[in-house]
């Protein structure tokens, strides 16, 4: 885990055409994406490539891993859940997924550019011609000492992507090994359903407890409800809300 000092990060939602700033308190985040070896150890799975990022991991399975890691370390689990209904206890100091504000702040490491270094030096992308995720740590880190925040695999975050349009879809960030440079940028937001899993989506863990309820580090349950509100029928192609 790397310690990240507090600071300010700017976020952007292209569909809603809104930009906003988030003030962050200090937190910790994984130096690497969670690996196959780590998932195998805690969830009893087989690690075919131990040092590669764990992929084909749904958002819900990432939540389960975070709780298992907390219990392993004797920490209070950050989440309780009933099916897909997951509650983040923000005062818990157990392992959890980063908020997307934390993720982008940690990824940028002070940079205001799309990439924190020459992309060929910091990220596995389609330009490398690889056909699968690569071992973590194979490219240069950012100034926070984090490897693979760009490229290699997308990484799940805690936040809802766009609840008005996509209902329960959760954010993933960073781009993957099969993506071109346009998708491998610090600001790119994509997402998927909580049970979705793909061969280019993984996650990294964060830690940090906060003196609040249902709100922390750029996320709040109230804001989710406000973003989900829409008058009238849903436009064609939008995901029906549950």
From TrEMBL:
InterPro entries with a match to the protein in the record: CTDL_fold, Sulfatase_Mod_Factor_Kinase, SUMF_dom, SUMF_sf
Transmembrane segments: none
Gene3D superfamilies hit by this protein: paralog of FGE (formylglycine-generating enzyme)
GO molecular function: formylglycine-generating oxidase activity
Record-annotated Sulfatase-modifying factor enzyme-like domain positions: 17-207
Name the record gives this protein: Sulfatase-modifying factor protein
Organism: Agromyces aureus
């Amino acid at each position: 885990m790397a310690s990240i000092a507090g600071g300010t990060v700017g976020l952007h939602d292209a569909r809603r055409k809104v930009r906003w700033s988030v003030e962050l308190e200090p937190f910790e985040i994984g130096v690497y994406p969670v690996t196959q070896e780590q998932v195998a150890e805690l969830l009893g799975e087989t690690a075919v490539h131990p040092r590669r990022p764990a992929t084909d991991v749904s958002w819900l399975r990432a939540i389960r891993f975070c709780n298992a890691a907390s219990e392993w370390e004797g920490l209070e689990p950050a989440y309780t859940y009933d099916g897909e209904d997951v509650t983040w206890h923000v005062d818990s100091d157990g392992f959890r997924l980063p908020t997307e504000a934390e993720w982008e702040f940690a990824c940028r490491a002070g940079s205001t550019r799309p990439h924190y270094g020459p992309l060929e030096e910091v990220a596995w992308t389609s330009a490398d011609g690889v056909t699968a995720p690569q071992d973590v740590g194979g490219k240069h880190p950012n100034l926070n000492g984090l490897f693979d925040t760009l490229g290699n695999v997308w990484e799940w975050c805690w936040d809802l992507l766009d609840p008005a349009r996509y209902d329960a879809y959760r954010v993933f960030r960073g781009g993957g090994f099969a993506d071109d440079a346009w998708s491998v940028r610090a600001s790119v937001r994509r997402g998927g359903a909580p049970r979705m899993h793909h061969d280019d989506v993984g996650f990294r863990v964060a830690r940090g407890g906060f003196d609040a309820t249902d709100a922390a580090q750029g996320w709040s349950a109230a804001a989710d409800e406000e973003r989900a509100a829409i008058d009238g029928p849903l436009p064609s192609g939008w995901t029906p809300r549950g």
